[in-house]
């Protein structure tokens, strides 16, 4: 088939909301230039490293939470080569508290791949970017749009919500059929120019105006032709998958300390807390004979797919004795209890140890 005859997505199949299709892109660009966000730390730059770092940190995480982490990362690792040469434990320590720790491990692996395969330069092709660790289709598009002015479509959770409401898309966005429909829509709406303002506008609209709850329809540039607003379905769209109760996983861990130190083991580099320091599992250490039991505590922490319920047995030992590691795959060492805030610890253990230090 000749290049000029390549079929384009049939937007009438994608959505019947024709007025929105005709007006959406131009309205979004105008709105972003006047009312969008322009003072975020990762804006006003075409440096793909800084853009990539911000995009990874912003996955599943709010802007205000990301800002201080972003600044600390750039101070410690100002270039992708600096990040590639870093020890993964240093990366995890800086990431501690930001959650979704696979992002940090992928961040480090991706930096190493860029340093070795691309000589420290980010490729400007979305297809090449998506082949790198931790970079999906939407993230690759955002990097290329902001760094290189490349016309590529983004489609994160916020953008899906905007599209479902404005264009009246039915069904759960995470299902394959609806996801495919939304990608077709995203591709069909790309502007011929102003791709940076358009891409940022999608992010801004979903984050500041078309929010999951308490949407600010009165200030939305799409109010005049938004399907959800006109049919009073803003709270209904997008459709949500029925929530199942989270399964509960139980765990028994030991908090072993002396007057100034706590004993922690480093988990293997896989799983939810891979590579982080952690309270040792009850069956992975042997207590010294001098250990004195303190009041135990229960810690609950919700993950995306389950809830952890950990029974924490607390022990105090003499400074002249130490627990013995029984698992040769996990390093057991003493760390200053007062430094718990700065260690590469999962959030529930950090909170627990900070409170432990405060109790003294």
How would you characterize this protein structure?
The protein starts with 10 loop residues before the first helix and ends with a helix. It is built from 14 helices and nine strands. Helix 2 packs across helix 12. Mean pLDDT is 92; it is low at 1-9. Helices cover 41% and strands 12% of the residues. The longest helix has 18 residues, at 18-35. Strand 6 (297-302) and strand 7 (307-316) form a beta hairpin. The protein is an alpha+beta fold. Strands 1, 5, 6 and 7 form a four-stranded mixed sheet that branches.
Distance between the termini: 76 Å
What's the β-strand tally?
9
Report the sheet with the most strands, covering strand number, pairing sense and barrel closure.
4 strands, mixed
Radius of gyration: 24 Å
Number of helices: 14
Structural class: alpha+beta
- Share of residues in strands: 5-15%
What order do the helices and strands follow?
A: HHHHHHHHHHHHHEEEEEEEEEH
Name the helicity range. 40-55%
* Uncertain spans: 1-9
Overall pLDDT score:
92
Cα shape: elongated
Architecture blueprint of SSEs:
Blueprint: H1 11-14, H2 18-35, H3 48-57, H4 63-76, H5 80-85, H6 88-95, H7 102-117, H8 126-130, H9 137-148, H10 157-167, H11 176-188, H12 195-209, H13 227-230, E1 248-257, E2 261-266, E3 277-278, E4 285-286, E5 292-293, E6 297-302, E7 307-316, E8 324-325, E9 332-336, H14 347-359
